[in-house]
Structure formats: structure tokens, C-alpha cells
Amino acid sequence: ERVLRLDESPIGEIDPAKATDYADTVLAVNLYDTLVYPKKGGPGVEPRLATEWTTDGATYTFKLRDGVKFHSGNPLTADDVVFSLNRTVAMGQGFSNLFAGRVTKAEAIDPLTVKFTLSEPYAPFLAALVRLPIVDSKTVIANKVDGKYGEFGDYGEAWLSAHDAGSGAYKVESQNPQSETVMVKYPDYFLGFAENAPDTVRYRYGVEAPTIRALMSRGEHEISDLWLPPEVIRAMGTEKGLKLLTEAGGATGEYIKLNTARAPLDDVHCRLALTYAFDYATTLKILQINDKYAQGIPMKGALPSGLLGYDKDAPAYAQDMDRAKAELAQCKYDPKTSPIDIAWIAEVPARERIALLMQASFSKLGFPVKVVKTPWALVTEQVTKPDTAPHAVEIAVAAVTPDPDSLLYNMYSSKVPPTWMSAEHLKDDKVDALLEAGRGEVDEAKRAEIYKELNARLRELAPSIYAYEFTGVVVARDAVNVPGLSGPADQRLDNFNLNFRDISVAE
Amino acid sequence: MAEPVLTIRDLRLAFGSRRRQTEVLHGISLHVRASEKVALVGESGSGKSVTARLAMGLLQEAPTTHASGSIRFDGIDAIKGGREIARRRGNRVAMIFQDPTSALNPTFKIRGQFREVLRSGNPAISDADADRQAEAALAEVSIPDPKRALDSYAFQLSGGMNQRVMIAMALANRPALLMADEPGTALDVTVQAQTLKLMHELTEKRGTAVLLISHNLGVVREFADRVYVIYRGRIVEHGTTAQLFHEPRHPYTRALLAAIPKISGGGLPDLPERSPDFENPLIVHEGCGEPAGAIA
Amino acid sequence: MSEPGSPVIAKRSGSKAWQAYRSNPLSVAGLVIVAVIVFMAVFADYLTPFPEHVGPIGDFAAMNMGPSETYRLGTDTMGRDLFTRIIYGYQLSLIMAVVVLAIATPVGVIVGLVAGYKGGWTDYVLMRITDIFLAVPPLVLAMAIMGFLEPTLLNGMLAITAMWWPWYARLIYNVTRAEAQEGYVLAAETVGASTMHIIFREILPNCWPSILTKMTLDVGFVILMASSLSFLGLGVQPPTPDLGSMVAEGAKYMPDAWWLSVWPAIAILIIVLGFNLVGDGLREAFEAES
Amino acid sequence: MIWKSLLHRIGAALIVMVGISMLIFAIARVMPGDPARIALGPNATAEQVAALRAERHLDAALPVQYWEFLKALSRGDLGKSLYTNRPVTTDIAQFLPATLELCIISAILMVLIGLPLGILSAHFRGRFPDHLGRLIALIAVCTPAFVWGVILQLCFGYFWPIFPIEGRLLDSIPVPQGPTGFYLIDLLVAGNGAGFLDALHHLVLPALALAMSGLGQAARLTRSNMIDVYEKPYVEMARAYGFRPWRIATRYAFRPAFIPTLTILGLEFAAMLGNAFLVEKVFGWPGLSRYGVEVIIRKDLDAIVGTVLIIAAAFLIMNIIVDVLVSIINPRIRLAGGRG
Amino acid sequence: MSTPILELDNLGKTFEADGHRVVALDGVSLTFNRGECHAIVGESGSGKTTIANLVLGLMPATSGSMRFNGVALPAERTKAHRRAIQLVQQNPLSALNPRRSVGASVRLPLDVHGIGVSRERGARVAGLLEEVGLEADYARRSPRGLSGGQRQRVAIARALACEPELIVLDEPTSALDVLVQARVLQLLQRLRQERGLTYLFITHDLAVVRAIATRVSVFQKGRLVETGPVESIFANPQSAYTRQLIGAIPVVTEEEAKIRNVIRAGTPTPLGTE
Ligand SMILES: Nc1ncnc2c1ncn2[C@@H]1O[C@H](COP(=O)(O)OP(=O)(O)OP(=O)(O)O)[C@@H](O)[C@H]1O
Ligand SMILES: Nc1ncnc2c1ncn2[C@@H]1O[C@H](COP(=O)(O)OP(=O)(O)OP(=O)(O)O)[C@@H](O)[C@H]1O
Ligand SMILES: [Mg+2]
Ligand SMILES: [Mg+2]
Ligand code: NI
């Protein structure tokens, strides 16, 4: 029996309607299927459950692949798609905001045709569908208990937190939220498997760095998580039997989110001063693992390199203390009396260094700087209010769909309710206008131009410091081959690359 | 005259670290012959107990005690041969303590402790045999229901009963020498009197030698054949009981005698307001029958 | 005049205890350890090679270096001298322990004294409150408190204090109950002394040996507890050096950058050991005294 | 009269439980951060958050919330964990046995290693074995549990990999299904000897790391209590009657010395339940202690209250058990009522 | 002729412990006369200390009443009562606070009752110490450095500080050496004569009683067995129990042994009534 064991820090959520972060995505991708899937090697999507589709901007009609079966044996039909959408929207968690209020109607035209009607033309919709895993409506209904959704009871929420109702390549065997999700191969999967694909996958949660280190050395785990400190990865990379793999990035930016609603950062000059004071070179050096691998690459603005509208000609950022001081001179606040608090997310130790680096550089401008280590759960809460949000906090934001809108709209539109993504609390009419334009435009080239312009505007406004693009590096045993993590050409959008069925595990 | 079972010569004892020592015994010499009842009297802190404990080999192991001189018991030197004497404890020599209740282990039944005592005299003894012997021994000290007593814990018995148990244990292995350190003074006067009587009868019957320790000359008079008076780590007077009481020579002995209230009336003994200075005692010997070669 | 057998020289109380203390080499060693650490912590500014490494500074050129000539114990992930940070960590640990004990001890002692001496309902109510605080897992309690206060040094200390006092209440309660049986308490009562007098002037002085001993032992345990809190990110905030956080963070780099957590762990061990030895010594000394 | 005092103790424990529930309830509610927001995840909108607040009575006054909580509690409902998305009772049922199993094995190690160490020290008081024993005990006490965890993991998992370093069971062994949740017992019940050995194998390192401090404490307590007992007349009596020194140490002086030790060890064991989380974290042990910490960090109200109540209840029950044990070992208490 | 200072009327005390009852004192009526040394003797557990506790108001009686100087004693004692009735305990080791100086212990009642001006109290303490035969500089010492007899003297000085009328002495000499005991008894005797004190003297040692007491009451199991002037009790003990107690006294002379044996045997002495 081939076993694949992977590590991940936070607990994985197996209910696809609640999925939000990396682990949840990996589970959703492997347990469920979506109508479309991020394309390999560039922006955009490719067919998956849907074989073809048509759109006029406001309505989308999909033809479904025939013969796909859920793990229960039920055939996958348009009704399941409608049910999945309704379920996601009704529960209001996870990525429901991609659909809520936008899809006015979802209907099954025939068992293999589904039609979505949107309230207005909305270009990112297609890409958003990579976040709509299709659940087996019959199985869910069969396992529902009483709840607040009327005839749907609890929408199977309780049941789906420990089981799956998917059609994916793997199915849940057991779920222990504190230690692991165990999945086994679903042999009838319609896309088939790599030759030596694992029979069992154990996705382990909350394993400490030294433990991972030892487990990998002992050959007891196959793939480490993404969050190990660079030093540890470096050391493991030199160990016999282990190799490094990378998720080449292109969709995840590391943003130092500046609270634009709080003095002194409500003054753009102060923000620009910080932007110039930030030490980009050292940051990258810290993230360097060896000459081949690094946990970050330079970033040129709000958009990471793998998304539509990325401006490869924009000037690179670099520390420039003179310009920083010049900007500061124009700022209406006196830095000496304007304390700045920087939060760093406790779960990611490497961020402490960036925070301290910031503390050091910002102090040089004369700001009194305080660094506060804050657990992620608390950060997500604090940042929703301008007066509790820290002045600066490094947050990684990934495009959740292969579309720039999924990243930028949530971050910078003044229309979205504040979340961790919009910790900047930016209110700028031009940004708002460009964001709306990007959504409404169907033509891809024109969209690219809009996002380039938006990028330029954001560089002027400096609501965030564009620190670097995150590139994940994991350690894997030589015995495993992970096509999704072996080079940019084979890669899809971040998070969508760990397809267990593609992985081969040598005996 | 019978051979002495215990001979102590020029026993000195100091407590403290190697550098800083306080001597509490300044050269004690005494002896106890077979079947003889000898008393050691003296005030509190004069060194009675430590003498007995040294003779039992109980103090030597402590790193803070420094003893010199000689204690011969059964031909073994207890100062040097700590382990040798240890083997004889409870077998050839036994001890009775002041407060019998605290001298019995509160977490074991009398039965278990008795077995252990008998086993130290005869390692091969079976439980049943030990119990039989224990019952007999308890009956001998007039404990009404020996079986019940064996199944009790010390705190379930009265102090007087515990004292009897102790005596039974002490004599169970028919020791040659019994040391009694103020037996029963922690209890009532009546119990003390009973204890002494019982000890007297039993040791008489078995020919056991006894070293009785007390600060009360009244007690001693009832019990002992011979008396040593110890004062601040020195023997200041010794002699047969009759002689000593009849004609005490040393002022300290006289003071002790005078201090005992009389039941014949006459109020309190008339003591000088200031203590007489006993610091440089003349050593008085009276019919001590010192073994040959002894220097006292 | 003196009774026969009475010691004629009255020694100053405590000198016997000191003698007993001095006679145990381990206790003396403990005292030396503590003295050296306190000295280093107090004069850290002069004794450490890189006092500026305590502040918001990172020397990323020198990060994660093993022990060397310049950096005796190596540098941390920010390129700061570990030796310097450990000494400053001591400073913080000591302040922490002193403040925690300075608050927890009086509170616990007073509760214990009053409950133990008064008995009855006062006893029942006070000791049940104590039990409540004892039964809530200490770290949970501290975390909860830290949860609604800002995670600062002071609040960290308050949180630890909140979970510390019940142990003193328990201890002193038991001591008081025993002392209340003593003749001198009876004597004070028959004379008509007030409850306040009996509790604070008669009983309390006799609790000092227990209190002092526990306090010295607790210095170590407060430091350990603080380090456990730091392990959860609930203690002192960076860049202030804290031994517990140093171990916790450094552990992530084990075994490759071993110096990151090994030295702070040894530093914790030494200071806790030092205070424990002193505590043990005091306990023995007080026993010898009575 | 043992029963009467037992009833008395249980009554006091119940009062304490009520007090704890109020305390922890209050603490959990005044902690900053909006539990509804945290529950719904970072992407939720303000309206969704408000709706959940209303649904969970989070806007009501504290006493009202407490009353709701008590009502639910009487139905055996501790609410739902936001962290695991399951009923808190399910979580506790799954994680408590893991923690208990770990703590019990730790306690056994604590006794098996700590007590002999203490006896040895006391027996050789002031000599080399004593110094060595004391030093070992002291170092065990003076090093935090998580450091022990990392040290043991490195030594026996990395440099000399002879023990598993993570989890409760090898992946290849099917997780036993009930009845107790204690793998050791369940695997034995299922007749899986190899599984039992493997579960034991997995327990060694975490249990040892967790036991270290208690073990040192046990050794120190045993030593000092033994030394106290050695001064007692009955030990002098035992020596005077020629009991073998070793027998005195292991039986005659040990039993009375064990009574006060047991009381403290009981407390130590009970405290372990709440303090095990660092070790659970290091060894990836899916226990209640770690769960408790995770839920506090996440402000998972129901789970916090539930976990704390269970741990506190375990603490109090353990205390009562220790009292009963002490009274069984100490005949003075056991028989006090018998004569009346 | 002699005035009663303390009268016990059918005094009873029952303890409830762990659900079983111990009758510690069973309807005792007794009168203590001013200026006397009234001894209470009995074996361990006969209720002697219980009487002391009741008289001192340390615990409430279960039944009966007490009158002090003809006035009923209230359960909650007034300061005046606390001052008039004093206690000297059995165990001199624990009776003095080991962590306070001798002077502080003796001074305590002066402070509590506001005796004298605060400045003069030091001198007063010195005077009291001298009265019990200790030099004034003992005030600065810790009780730890004192012998049993010295401590007992300090305890007596403390009781005297209140200028009491009645002193309850609960086995004040049973923890002491014979020689030291003799001296403490001498001191007590002298103080009683000089100050006109009344003693309630608790002991189990009848020889001591013979030496110091004027009246004796014998207790057994919480009951008063007999009471009377000391000479008549010794000359002609009425109960077998008293005879047993006297018979247990260790004596040092032949002559006394003879007297004792006669008493023990229960044969009537010349004074006897039989
Ligand atoms: N273990 C010890 N360490 C130090 N000094 C000791 C020790 N044991 C006894 N002493 C001292 O030795 C002296 C003699 O003590 P010992 O117990 O023999 O007196 P004693 O004559 O038996 O008195 P008592 O009548 O009070 O029992 C005393 O001054 C005592 O303080
Ligand atoms: N606080 C108490 N609770 C329960 N029983 C008590 C209490 N105090 C005394 N007794 C019991 O009352 C009886 C009389 O005790 P008391 O102390 O008066 O005796 P005593 O004559 O002073 O004895 P001793 O000579 O041992 O001091 C005893 O049986 C004792 O156990
Ligand atoms: Mg003695
Ligand atoms: Mg009494
Ligand atoms: Ni001679």
C-alpha cells in the first residue's frame, strides 16, 4: 500500500462550504470537483466537470460531463450543482461571498446543463467557480439533521464536518480535527491516477517544526508543510533522501497592510515614507534558502506575477532612506509623537523577522515602533475595525480564484465589508472605479489594461507595502514525485497544485 | 561477680561539623552486669539518652556525630563495629522508649511490627509461628485480648497498652540487655508505676540486665540495684541504690533527692535560691565493683 | 540565676539557621548562582557585549550564527547576540518573579491566615474561593486573563499572580491551622489580645519560614510559568528578550541551530536551579533552627 | 464516618464547580474579540456576524447568557465548538481519553521513578547517591516540560530513533473503536497485542516528558518526608530492634512518608491534565489540554467553558480520590469513625 | 470564713466529634476559695484541661454555670474577666511564641489591658521578670534559647502581668525535670503568698499536690471523685481511685514508702473513719 503523509499547521476543514485557507483548499481539491479548474502555467481556467460553457456576461450556461459518479455511487447532475451553490450561499461561510448577492438564479436546465443568472455582468464569475466544489445533494439530504435552513435542516453541516459527499479522487476515511484527515483513493475517479498514486493519504495537522524535521529524516512523512523556517528547510535540503520542492508563486502577495484610516498613516506621505524605508533586499535575503530556492521573490505592486494585468515593467521597489525622509518631511505628522504598532502573526515565526526589520527601519525615521505578536484569529478580528487594526501587519493574500479581481477587490474596494484582506481600510474613488470597471469588462486585453492602471494608482497611494511574492518551499522525500510543485511551467494557481492523484510514491 | 554485658569506657561524644563541634559527653564510664538493674539518672540534657543510643549503635552512622572511647557489648566494640552491633539489636539488646505510642509505626498493625521484631531475632520464623509467639508475649504482659491487640494499630490502643506491647516486643527475643529510656514518663504516674513493675517482674524472671534511664530518683529507687548519676556529660557519683540513697555524697545527688516532693507532707523541699555550682564535680565511687582494670 | 542545664549564652536568633545553611555546600552554591545572576542582571548594561541587541534591532548579516569569538553563545535569527539577550532575559525574569511574588504572597498569606485562624464560615468561603482558582488550570486562567488584557509584561505578571496566590493561601492556611493549636496562641487569647494582633503579630511571624522557603522556590517556578506563557505567545513582546520565548522559538530550529534554544534552556535551568537550591537550603536551615 | 466526610467533600466540590463555571464563563465573555466573527471566519460580513451573535445570545446580559448555558448544560449540551465545528461534548469525548491516558501513564512513571529516587536519596542521606539523586530530581523539576519534550524527541527520535515521536499509534494500526477511548485498554479489549505494544511505545516519550517535573517533585517530596519520618521515634525503634535498613527504607518508614507525598502527588497529577498541552503540542498528541489552548486562542467560547469545566471537574474528582486513598492508607483516618 | 472566688455549679461539657459524643465533664459542682491553691488531679483524659478551658472561657459549657466573685460568668468574657483569670500551660515549649522576644510576650497583656503608661511598660516587664527570678536582660532574648524552667517562669511572669486574681495552672511542671520542678513550685508558692493569688492547679502528680496544694479535688472520667483539704485526702483517701493515684507516687525514702504502701493497701490510717 502506498501512503502519502503530508503536514499542515492549521486544522483542515473538510466541509467545502466552509473552506477558506490552504489546507481547506487542498482537501476540497482532492475530495471534490468543481466545474472549472485553474489552468496550468498561466492565468485562467480549464474545463473540469463542465465540458463547455457559454456566457453573455450576465448569464452562464454549463454543459456537464456525463458519467461522473459521487463516492456514494450517485451520478453527478445539474441539481447537485444548484444544490451546492445554494448551500454555500445559505451557510454564508467560506467563499460564499464570491457568489452571494451576485448569482440571482441557478437552475438545472436538464440533468447535464446548469444555468446561472447574475445580477449584472461579472467577469470574474467563471474563475470563481473553482471555489464551488460540487456536493452530492442526495447524500447530504440523507444525512441532514434539524437546523436553521428549513427543509434543508442543517444542510448536512454536522455530517460534512466528518465525512465527504464528493466526487473527487480521494474520499475521507476518518477525520480527527486535532490530528489528521485520512483519505483513501476513489478508484472510479473519472480523470484517473498517476501510476504510483497513493492509496492512502494522511494529512496531518499542527505538527511542530522539530517534529516534522525528525519525521522527514526518519522517512515517516513524505511532504512537509510550507511554513518551516528557511534555516530548517536549508538544513533538510542537504539531507540524504530529502529534496526541496517549490510552489512557484504568482498568486500570493505578502502585503504589509498599512492602516490608512489611522494617524499617522492616513497621510499618504507617511505611508510612502514607510514604503521607501522598507528594506526589501534584506527581506529577500532572509527568505533565501539556497541559491535555487527562496520563500519569496520581488514584487512590483499590488498584483503578483501570475495574474492577469501584472505589470512586469513597473519599477522594482528598493529601500531609499533619502526619499523616505523627503516624503516624511511632507507628512503632516511629527514621527516622534506618532507611535506605530506593528502586528505579526504568531503562527508564522519568519514574520517576526520582517516585523523587526520594519521596526528597525521605521525607527530610523523617528517613529516610536511597537511590535505585537498576535494570533491569527485575533488579527482577523482586530483588523476589521479601523481603530483596532494595527498600523502595519504583514498578511499574505492569495488570489483565491485565477482572477485578479478576487485579490484586489476584496483588498481595496471601499464597498466590501472590512475583513482581514482589507486591513488597509482604503477609501479611494479612483481605485473603486477601476475595480468596478475590471469586473464589468469582458474583454481580456482591456481588463489587463485596467488592472495595470489600478496597479499604478495603488503604487501612488501606498496603502500597502508590497514586500514580496510568496513562493512556498516544501521538503519532500526523494521517493515522491509531485508534478504540481516541480516547476513554473506545470503549475496552476497557488493552492491548487497538491493533487494527490498526480503524485507518485515510490515503494 | 557476673561478667558485665555492657562496658562503657571513657565515652566521649561531640556533635557538629568537623570544624565546629560541641562535646556533650566528656568521658563516661559505666558497666552493666548480667541480670543487674542499673539506673542512669540525671537532669534533662545531661546525656543519658545519647549514651543509650550510642550503646545501641544508633547514633554512629550520623555524619554529625563524633564518638570516641569504647563501648563493649558481647565483646564487640559498638563505636567501631556499628554493623556488628546492628546485627545484635533487638536480639541481644533491646530498647524501650519514653512515649510508646509514638514509638510504634502508625501505619502498620501491631502484628506486622511484632513479626518484624521476631524476624530480626530469627529470620527463618514463619508468620504463624511469629504470631503464636507474639500472642504469648502479649499475654505475658497481661494484655487482655492479645489477638485483638495484634490486629490493632497503635493509636487504637491506650498508652498503657502500647507500653505493654513495647515491653513484650523488647523481651520477645530474650535479649541479654534491655535499655529503658524514661519508660512511661510520657504517660500517667499510674502507668509509669505499672510499667516499672512489669519490667521488674519480667526481667527478674529472665535474668535480663537492664539499664534504666530516668531523671527521677524516686523511680530509680524502686527499681535499680545500682545507680549512676550523670551531670552534664559526666558521671558524678555512682553506687548501689541503698548506699546512694542512704548517704548521697555529691551535692548534685543530694539536690536531686531533695527536690522530690514528699508525700509525708512538710511542704516544698527547701532549695537554695541559687543553684549550687556543680561544675567541678568530685567523682564519688561507692561499692561500684568496677571490673578489673577500669579507670573511673 | 539560671536553671541547671540551661544554655547560658543566648544566641541571636537566626545565626543557627545561617550556620546550618552554610554547612550545606549545595545551598551555598545556590546562593552563589543567584548572586551572580542578580549581579549580572543588574549590571547588564555594563557586562554584556551588545546591550543594543535588546532593542528593536536586527543584524541580518549575522543571523543564526553558531558560537564564535565575537558572539560567545552565537546569534539568534535576528542576528542578535544570545549572551546579551540571555542576561537581559534574566533581568526580566527576575523582575517578573519579584513582582508576581510581591503581589501574590501578601494576598495569599492574608487569605490563608484569616481562613485558618477564623475557621467556620469565613474559612469555608475563603477556601472555596481559593479552590476555584486552584481548580481552573493555571495556564488557562493566565491565558484567559491575558486574553482580555493586552499582552504586556505587566499584564503577564498580573495573570501569573492571579493563579499564584491560591498556593500561598493553601500553604499558610495549613500552617495557620497548625500554629493556632500552639500554646502561644492560646496564651494570647486568654490574655484578651485582638484577632488582628494574634493573626499578624503572633501567627504571621511563625509563617515566615514557610513563606520565605516557598518564595525562593517559587522564583524558579514563576520563571518557568512565564516561559510557558511565552511559549504560547502570551508573555513579553518582542524584541524584549524573554528566556521562555527564546527557548520556544529556538526549538523550531532544532537540532540544526541548536544554540538558539539550548543556551536559553540552560539559562532557565541555572536560575531555577539556583533559587531551588537556596530554597532547599533555607528549608533545612529553618528546620535546624527549630 | 468516612462516608460523611466524603459527602462533605463532594458538596464542597460542587460548590467549587459552580464557582468555576461562573468564573470561566465571565472570563470567556470579557475576552476581547468577537466570537461570532471568529466563528464565521475571516470572510464573513458584518450582517452575518450580527445574525450569529443574536442566534447565540451573545448580545444578552451575562446572567442571561449564563442561565441559557445552565439550561443547555442540564440537557448535556455544552454547545458547539467553532474550532472543530462539532459539539463540544463530542470533542471532549474524543480528546479527554487521550489526555487522561497520557497523564495516567505519566503519573505511573512519576511514581515508578520518582519514589525510588526519593527513597534512595533519603536512605543515603548526605552521601553520594543522595547528592546524585537530588541533582537529578532538581534538574527534572527545573526544566520546563516543553524543553523535556524537545530534548527527548531529539535524543530518541532523531539522533537515536528508537521511539515514535508523534501521534498515538502507527498509521498501519487501525484506530481502535471504543469502548473507553484509552488506546491501551481498547486495543487489549480488541485482542490486538501488537497494537497495544505500539500504543505503549508511542506513550513513552510524551509521558516521560510530562512526568519529568512531577517525578522530580515526587523524589524531592519523598526524600524530605522520609527524612522527617526517619527522625520519628518509631523509626529509631525499628532500628533499635534490628530491622534491616533497606526494609525500613522501603516499607517501614516509606509507608508513613508516602501519605503526605500522595496528597501532593494527587494535586500534581490533577494539575497535569491542564498543563499537558505543551507536551501534547510537541508530540502531536490529540488531547484535551491542547484542545483547550487552541480554543482559548480562537475564543471558542463554548469549547473554552466546556473544557475548563471538565478539567476542573477532573481536578476536583482527583482530589477527592486522593483524599479517599490517603484515608485508606492512613489507618488513623480510616478507622477514626470505626470506634465511635 | 474563706470567701469563694469561683463556683462551678453542675458544670458539664460534652464534645461531639465525628458523630460520637465524649462526656468530658459530667455535672461538676465545686467551689474555689480565695487565696487557696486548689489542686485538680486525675488521670489523663479525666477532664482536667476541660475545666481549665471552661473557666477561661475558651469554650462554652454544655450545661451548668460558673460564678466568679459571686457574679455569673458570661459566655463571652469581658476584658476584666480576661484580666482577672490567667493561664499557665503545661508545655513551656509552645506557650511562648518562638519568634517574639521574651519581653514582647510578657508585655502583651500590659498593652492589651492598657496597664501602665506605654513608656513605663519596659520597666514593668523587667520588674516582672525579676519577680519570677530572671534577670531583666532576658526580655531581649528569644524563648528558643531558654530552658524549660526558664520558659515556665516567663509564662508565669506573663500571667502575673495582668495582675490576676485567679491563675489556672494546667500541669505547669509535668514537662520539667524534678529539680527544675521543685524550683518552679517554690516560685509559685512564694508568689501566692506574697500576692494573695488563687491557684487552680491541675496535675496528675499527687506528690506535687501534697507539696503545694491546700485543697484537692480528684477527678475520674469527667466526674468529681472526692474533694477536701490536702491533709485529709492524704491521710484518709475515700476512694480506691485516689489510693491508686497516691500508690503510684515514686518515693525516695523508706519511711515514705511505708506511708504510701499503707495508703495503697487501703487500710485506714489513724485518722480514718472506718
Ligand atoms: N542529634 C543531636 N545533635 C546535636 N545535639 C544533640 C543531638 N542529640 C542530643 N544532643 C544534645 O546532647 C545533649 C544530651 O542529650 P540527651 O538527649 O542525651 O539528654 P537526656 O539526658 O536524655 O535528656 P532528657 O532527660 O531531656 O531526655 C543535649 O544537650 C542535646 O541537646
Ligand atoms: N476539643 C475536643 N474535642 C473532642 N473531644 C475532646 C476535646 N477536648 C477534650 N476532649 C475529650 O475530653 C476528655 C477530657 O479531656 P481533657 O483534655 O480535659 O483531659 P485531661 O484530664 O486534661 O487529660 P490530660 O492529662 O491528658 O491532659 C478526653 O476524653 C478528650 O478526648
Ligand atoms: Mg533523653
Ligand atoms: Mg490536659
Ligand atoms: Ni567506680
TrEMBL record, chain B:
InterPro entries: AAA+_ATPase, ABC_Ni/Peptide_Import, ABC_transporter-like_ATP-bd, Oligopep_ABC_C, P-loop_NTPase. SMART domains: AAA. It is a peripheral membrane protein. PROSITE patterns: ABC_TRANSPORTER_2. It comes from the Bacteria. Residues 8-257 form the ABC transporter domain. Its main location: membrane. Coiled coil: none annotated. It is found in: Cell inner membrane. Keywords: ATP-binding, Cell membrane, Membrane, Nucleotide-binding, Transport. Belongs to the ABC transporter superfamily. This is ABC-type dipeptide/oligopeptide/nickel transport system ATPase component. Pfam families: ABC_tran (PF00005), oligo_HPY (PF08352).
Automatic annotation (TrEMBL), chain C:
Residues 90-279 form the ABC transmembrane type-1 domain. It is found in: Cell membrane. It is a multi-pass membrane protein. PROSITE patterns: ABC_TM1. The chain crosses the membrane at residues 26-44, 88-117, 129-149, 155-173, 219-237, 257-278. InterPro entries: BP-dependent_transpt_permease, MetI-like, MetI-like_sf, OppC_N. Keywords: Cell membrane, Membrane, Peptide transport, Protein transport, Transmembrane, Transmembrane helix, Transport. Belongs to the binding-protein-dependent transport system permease family. This is Peptide/nickel transport system permease protein. It comes from Kaistia dalseonensis. The lineage of its organism: Bacteria, Pseudomonadati, Pseudomonadota, Alphaproteobacteria, Hyphomicrobiales.
From TrEMBL, chain D:
The chain crosses the membrane at residues 12-31, 104-124, 136-160, 199-216, 257-278, 303-329. The keyword Aminoacyl-tRNA synthetase does not apply. It comes from the Bacteria. Keywords: Cell membrane, Membrane, Transmembrane, Transmembrane helix, Transport. Residues 96-326 form the ABC transmembrane type-1 domain. The keyword Cell membrane applies. It is a multi-pass membrane protein. PROSITE patterns: ABC_TM1. It is found in: Cell membrane. Belongs to the binding-protein-dependent transport system permease family. This is Peptide/nickel transport system permease protein. The lineage of its organism: Bacteria, Pseudomonadati, Pseudomonadota, Alphaproteobacteria, Hyphomicrobiales.
TrEMBL record, chain E:
Belongs to the ABC transporter superfamily. Keywords: ATP-binding, Nucleotide-binding, Transport. Pfam families: ABC_tran. It comes from the Bacteria. PANTHER family: D,D-DIPEPTIDE TRANSPORT ATP-BINDING PROTEIN DDPF-RELATED (PTHR43776:SF7), TRANSPORT ATP-BINDING PROTEIN (PTHR43776). PROSITE patterns: ABC_TRANSPORTER_1, ABC_TRANSPORTER_2. SUPFAM superfamilies: P-loop containing nucleoside triphosphate hydrolases (SSF52540). The lineage of its organism: Bacteria, Pseudomonadati, Pseudomonadota, Alphaproteobacteria, Hyphomicrobiales. This is Peptide/nickel transport system ATP-binding protein. Residues 6-246 form the ABC transporter domain. GO terms for molecular function: ATP binding.
